[in-house]
From TrEMBL:
Keywords (A to Z) from UniProt: Angiogenesis, Cell membrane, Cell projection, Differentiation, Disulfide bond, Glycoprotein, Membrane, Repeat, Signal, Transmembrane, Transmembrane helix
One GO-annotated biological process of the protein: cell differentiation
Pfam family, one: TSP1_ADAMTS
Lineage of source species: Eukaryota, Metazoa, Chordata, Craniata, Vertebrata
Region annotated Disordered, chain positions: 962-983
Residue ranges of domain Thrombospondin type-1 in the record: 911-950
Membrane topology: Single-pass type I membrane protein
Keyword Lipid biosynthesis found: no
All residue ranges annotated as the Spondin-like TSP1 domain in the record: 27-86, 428-470, 679-732, 807-866
Gene: THSD7A
Cell compartment(s), UniProt: Cell membrane; Cell projection
Annotated transmembrane regions: 999-1022
Protein origin, superkingdom: Eukaryota
Record protein name field: Thrombospondin type-1 domain-containing protein 7A
Length: 1049
């Protein structure tokens, strides 16, 4: 832009330079090109830096009087550059080594802090220094100047040594304090310690064991003790005043109490202290019991005799007896063996026991206190609970009669142990960082990336990989903004060659032709383009032309210079504005020469062609950049400004800066990288109480909780948060009623009477499937006498023995299953009902009006299930099959299925199919067997089965000239065809349903067509022809039909 000249008064005025203007007939040369970049960076014996510049001939001289063009050597100039000598030999240093303690220097009396770490002594660092020759390699040190040799040793500060420090051992775990009979396992006790400081900087390593165990001292031999009971003393009456807490008369009979003495004995019968039995012999036997002093009307019996001896067999029984005394022998009620049994039997004590495993295996449980620790150091929440553990299965002990007994009888401590392995977690493993990629843009602002790749996937609950890409490869990457100098690589052109005229006018030496030049991509430096690089590094859209059409002016014609640069378009781009360039005349034309053309060229400013708008843009945010050595926490994300042309191409920032555009973007922002926090768990809780007090299915459970959920890429929490272990099996003892005795009517055959039952001690395994077995009442001695939740025992009740012809009620049925109100398998929430009933037995129908009504009882329940019911049927066997109702849980039941949808269980025909060769079909109609046809009566019932005529077709062995049809002599006798003589076809027109078969209709249709054909032929044969045939030589040959034995005839 031209301004007032006064503004340039302080500037240096350009000095005029002398120049030669060629005359009309002189040779015209271009101006000198700029000097090329130097060929070498230094000069030596074999290398010398050179620069070249050149000019070209723009027009040749005329034939007469003009100055001639110089030869080709005068069109190029060379000059020296970079004349300083090359350094052939130089020192090369390696990296500094590790800091090693220097014993010649005394240690510090105090510690100092250096680089954030405590330092205790001075050390030395060394590095390798070698003499190197350029493009050759290492040579002897004498070739390099000693005065420039770098130092090879330097002092350094050593961080303090850190020895391994461990805690003292914990106390030994306790050994069993008491002996356990039948427990033969080896007991061990253990202790452990943990590392509280890991070794560093050459300190003493952790070599001492962190876990020790030893066998417990041999447990004391268990001395067996037992309670010895003595005879019951005489029954003592309890005064009525004591029983009722009120004064009363003195009683002489009735209920009382009797006592007995107990002592403690060793197994061999020797005396022992009471405290021994209290500790080892189990519960104390009862010291008192209820007894009865008979009154005058009571039944009196002798005491029970001793049990008879056992013969040693495990399945044998022993008995004891008692007898009625005095007048009781004559009383009818005393003769009731159910109320007053005179003999009692029980199984002999059995010493044969059988141990069996029951239930499932427990979870794999590690031994207490034995935990594999990362790096030997216990870090909260980073404990790997893995390694060898044990799993347990409960053992049950049964006697010879299949009754469950204490596991100690089988010399078992109640479990089977089996070693198991809990696999250790393995974390995701990634590679080291890759090198940074190239900047995503060769011009302007972009991003560069580096990444880590998956080496090993995590397993067994190890720390997960950050993420997976499309090929299932874990990839962690970092992205940072980068800026590429748009002038980093430039297209450099050499001067245009002389215009080579294609149609040379030898006389004139002028005309149109072609010019060429070399175009190369060069790396730009502060000293200018220096090194040739690959063409792809330069912008291909900006690549200059390497050839062009040219015009070599003829002698005496006007010669103009190269076009100057285009002027800038005025922004914003608009086609109404123009840009222009100009050229200057170098040689004026002669009188007869071609005059100079217009030296100014204009073109409109078109957007994105020769005119561009510019605007700022920003790159994507980088990944969160942390401080050095940090792996998580607060960081910074950055991005960069980019100048973008209106056609979307990034250009140098100067284009936007020249326009003074606003920069409203924030280039930095804070960010957070979530620190990986491993899942932290609490310690295992103590084992819970057993879920069942007895039986086979009891379990103990222990749990742990999440004290710190995992975050980021930390190790996730395991799924196993509770462990279960079977309880030792214990027999279930309880009281149970025996069966009611038959109804006993005093001095009569029928009517009102009484019936009795006993109470027995039974043992079971606690499951619903186990049939309880009666055992000695001693096993229930510590159990309160309660049956079905009721303490009041009902051992006797009135009953009715029906007289002949009477109606009577049966006993109550058992309670039904809990029945819910369900629709489509869903409970409506009304609760459940259980029902039981007493059936009415009617012996004579004429007494029906005197019978009581059937009795029903209901009670509410809440443990029912919604079931679906459907009919099931077996395959047919003859005319019958089995049909039953099945519940959705697979159990066959009575009731539940809809009666109206019940499938048929019988398909017999009515009336039955009694005709010979007939059978009852699935449709409950009578049909004939194969080879017979039905003869039906007028009421559509089968009358008889008639044998179908048989067509015998001769085979190869039995070729005959005709076909014989054999008729059945007797319809009930089968045809007697010799085997192998021919094939037999049965023509049966009726199907199994009694309808005509399809082929019968086909045959009828064929017969009808054949009949029409025959009638037509007869008609044509009888019709008088219009013109009789005169030619006798062309007689029609008669058609001869012959049978050749083919079945298709």
């Amino acid at each position: 832009e031209e301004v007032d000249r006064q503004l340039c008064r302080d500037a240096i005025f350009p000095i005029p330079v002398a120049c030669d203007a060629p005359c009309p007939k002189d040779c015209v040369l271009s101006t000198w090109s700029t000097w090329s970049s130097c060929s070498h960076t230094c000069s030596g014996k074999t290398t010398e830096g050179k620069q070249i510049r050149a000019r070209s001939i723009l027009a040749y001289a005329g034939e007469e009087g003009g100055i001639r063009c110089p030869n080709s050597s005068a069109l190029q100039e060379v000059r020296s550059c970079n004349e300083h000598p090359c350094t052939v030999y130089h020192w090369q240093t390696g990296p500094w080594g590790q800091c090693i303690e220097d014993t010649s220097v005394s240690s510090f009396n105090t510690t100092t802090t250096w680089n954030g770490e405590a330092s205790c002594s001075v050390g030395m660092q060394t590095r390798k220094v070698i003499c190197v020759r350029v493009n050759v390699g290492q040579v002897g040190p004498k070739k390099c100047p000693e005065s420039l040799r770098p130092e090879t040793v330097r002092p350094c500060l050593l961080p303090c040594k850190k020895d391994c420090i461990v805690t003292p051992y914990s106390d030994w775990t306790s050994c069993p304090s008491s002996c356990k009979e039948g427990d033969s396992s080896i007991r061990k006790q253990s202790r452990h310690r943990v590392i509280i400081q890991l070794p560093a900087n050459g300190g003493r390593d952790c070599t001492e064991p962190l876990y020790e165990e030893k066998a417990c001292d041999a447990p004391q031999v268990c001395q067996s003790y037992r309670w010895k009971t003595h005879k019951w003393r005489r029954c003592q009456l309890v005064p009525w005043s004591v029983q009722q807490d009120s004064p009363g008369a003195q009683e002489g009979c009735g209920p009382g109490r009797q006592a007995r003495a107990i002592t403690c004995r060793k197994q061999d019968g020797g005396q022992a202290g009471i405290h021994e039995c209290l500790q080892y012999a189990g519960p104390v036997p009862a010291l008192t019991q209820a007894c009865q002093i008979p009154c005058q009307d009571d039944c009196q019996l002798t005491s029970w005799s001793k049990f008879s001896s056992c013969n040693g067999d495990c399945g044998a029984v022993r008995t004891r007896k008692r007898t009625l005394v005095g007048k009781s022998k004559k009383k009818e009620k005393c003769k009731n063996s159910h109320l007053y049994p005179l003999i009692e039997t029980q199984y002999c004590p059995c010493d044969k026991y059988n141990a069996q495993p029951v239930g499932n295996w427990s979870d794999c449980i590690l031994p207490e206190g034995k935990v594999e620790v990362l790096l030997g150091m216990k870090v909260q929440g980073d404990i790997k609970e893995c390694g060898q553990g044990y799993r347990y299965q409960a053992m049950a002990c049964y006697d010879q009669n299949g009754r469950l007994v204490e596991t100690s009888r089988c010399n078992s401590h109640g479990y089977i142990e089996e070693a198991c392995i809990i696999p250790c977690p393995s974390d995701c493993k990634l590679s080291e960082w890759s090198n940074w990629s190239r900047c995503s843009k060769s011009c302007g602002s972009g991003v560069k990336v580096r990444s880590k790749w998956l080496r090993e996937k995590p397993y067994n609950g190890g720390r997960p990989c950050p993420k997976l890409d499309h090929v299932n490869q874990a990839q962690v990457y970092e992205v940072v903004p980068c800026h590429s100098d748009c002038n980093q690589y430039l297209w450099v052109t050499e001067p245009w060659s002389i215009c080579k005229v294609t149609f040379v006018n030898m006389r004139e030496n002028c005309g149109e032709g072609v010019q060429t030049r070399k175009v190369r991509c060069m790396q730009n430096t502060a000293d200018g383009p220096s090194e040739h690089v690959e063409d792809y590094l330069c912008d291909p859209e900006e690549m200059p032309l390497g050839s062009r059409v040219c015009k070599l002016p003829c002698p005496e014609d006007c010669v103009i210079s190269e076009w100057g640069p285009w002027t800038r378009c005025v922004l914003p781009c608009n086609q109404s504005s123009f840009r222009q360039r100009s050229a200057d005349p170098i040689r004026q034309p002669a009188d007869e020469g071609r005059s100079c053309p217009n030296a100014v060229e204009k073109e409109p400013c078109n957007l994105n062609k020769n005119c561009y708008h510019y605007d700022y843009n920003v790159t994507d945010w980088s990944t969160c950049q942390l401080s050095e050595k940090a792996v998580c926490g607060n960081g910074i994300k950055t991005r960069m400004l980019d100048c973008v042309r209106s056609d979307g191409k990034s250009v140098d920032l100067k284009y936007c800066e020249e326009l003074g555009l606003e920069k409203n973007w924030q280039m930095n922002t804070s960010c957070m990288v979530e620190c990986p926090v491993n899942c932290q768990l609490s310690d295992w809780s103590p084992w819970s109480e057993c879920s069942q007090t007895c039986g086979l299915t009891g379990k103990m459970i222990r749990r742990r909780t999440v004290t710190q959920p995992f975050q980021g890429d930390g190790r996730p929490c395991p799924s196993l948060m509770d462990q279960s272990k079977p309880c030792p099996v214990k027999p279930c003892y309880q009281w149970q009623y025996g069966q009611w005795s038959p109804c006993q009517v005093q001095e009569a055959q029928c009517g009102e009477g009484t019936r009795t039952r006993n109470v027995s001690c039974i043992v079971s395994d606690g499951s619903a499937d186990d049939f309880s077995k009666v055992v000695d009442e001693e096993f229930c001695a510590d159990i309160e006498l309660i049956i079905d939740g009721n303490k009041n025992m009902v051992l006797e009740e009135t009953c009715t023995e029906p007289c002949p012809g009477d109606c009577y009620l049966k006993d109550w049925s058992s309670w039904s299953l809990c029945q819910l109100t369900c629709v489509n398998g869903e409970d409506l929430g009304f609760g459940g009902i259980q029902v039981r009933s007493r059936a009415v037995i009617i012996q004579e129908l004429e007494n029906q009006h005197l019978c009581p009504e059937q009795m029903l009882e209901t009670k509410s329940c809440d443990d029912g299930h919604c079931y679906e019911y459907k009919w099931m049927a077996s395959a047919w066997k003859g005319s019958s099959r089995t049909v039953w109702c099945q519940r959705s849980d697979g159990i066959n039941v009575t009731g539940g299925c809809l009666v109206m949808s019940q499938p048929d269980a019988d398909r017999s025909c009515n009336p039955p199919c009694s005709q010979p060769h007939s059978y009852c079909s699935e449709t409950k109609t009578c049909h004939c067997e194969e080879g017979y046809t039905e003869v039906m009566s007028s009421n559509s019932t089968l009358e008889q089965c008639t044998l179908i005529p048989v067509v015998v077709i001769p085979t190869v062995e039995d070729k005959r000239g005709d076909v014989k049809t054999s008729r059945a002599v007797h319809p009930t006798q089968p045809s007697s065809n010799p085997a192998g003589r021919g094939r037999t076809w049965f023509l049966q027109p009726f199907g199994p349903d009694g309808r005509l078969k399809t082929w019968v209709y086909g045959v009828a249709a064929g017969a009808f067509v054949l009949l029409i054909f025959i009638v037509s032929m007869i008609y044509l044969a009888c019709k008088k022809p219009k013109k009789p045939q005169r030619r006798q030589n062309n007689r029609l040959k008669p058609l001869t039909l012959a049978y050749d034995g083919d079945a298709d005839m």
